[in-house]
Amino acid sequence: MIPGLPDNIDTIKGFLADDEAAALYQHATLASALGPVLEIGSYCGKSTIYLGLACQKNNRTVYALDHHRGSEEHQQGEFFHDPDLYDNNAGLMDTFREFRNNIHNAGLNNVVVPLVADSKSASKDWQTPLAMVFIDGGHSLDAALTDYRCWTPHLMRGGILAIHDLFSDPHAGGQAPYAVFRMALQSGLFEKIDQVNTLGLLRRL
């Protein structure tokens, strides 16, 4: 059992399996002893809470990056669309209110710093070295490559790169995260630590 985990964690909207959450927490706990953590694709904050609780132990920060307008698969007519998260007035997805409420209720307002922007814009003038980068944003090849190229240069040596939704079988899920995971390994900049369900874990050499 993870200390401080909210009683309602299982009802918070998200796509993180229990074993993936435990692995994310474990590696973020170790990594955040060295520096802050960046999450790309926070959605409603389920994974952010696990990262936040880990960083809280080391008095570190989680930068939670998401434009909160939903990825391709969250839009109207798509398989993962949630009408409860659709802003009818704006005609757009809006997950930020749900995210903010969940982080507040978890008592992590002083740990989690939301970055409401797209990945490329947020990275433009970034200077802070990161101990862990968790890529779980858009699952198109363009989005996944952008996240990887924008943020891995800021990952310190010995830091952790975590990538969610790895499916080697194209019938099981989208291939973009898996392609980026393989590219990271082939770059010679990373070594594989583990894969837990669909969560891949690499260490920056």
Provide a concise account of the structure shown.
The protein is 31% helix and 21% strand.
Structural summary, described in words:
With 205 residues, the protein is α/β, with parallel strands linked by helices. The protein has a single domain (9-204), classed as Vaccinia Virus protein VP39 (Rossmann fold, 3-Layer(aba) Sandwich), CATH 3.40.50. It has six helices and nine strands. It has a seven-stranded mixed beta sheet with strand order 5-2-1-6-7-9-8, with helices on both faces. The longest helix has 14 residues, at 18-31.
List descriptors.
205 residues; alpha/beta; Rossmann fold; 7-stranded mixed beta sheet; two-stranded antiparallel sheet
SSE order and pairing:
Elements: H1 18-31, E1 37-40, H2 46-57, E2 62-65, E3 86-87, E4 92-93, H3 96-105, E5 112-115, H4 119-123, E6 130-135, H5 141-151, E7 155-163, H6 176-186, E8 190-196, E9 199-204
Parallel strand pairs: 1-2, 1-6, 2-5, 6-7
Antiparallel strand pairs: 3-4, 7-9, 8-9
Helix pairs in contact: 1-2, 5-6
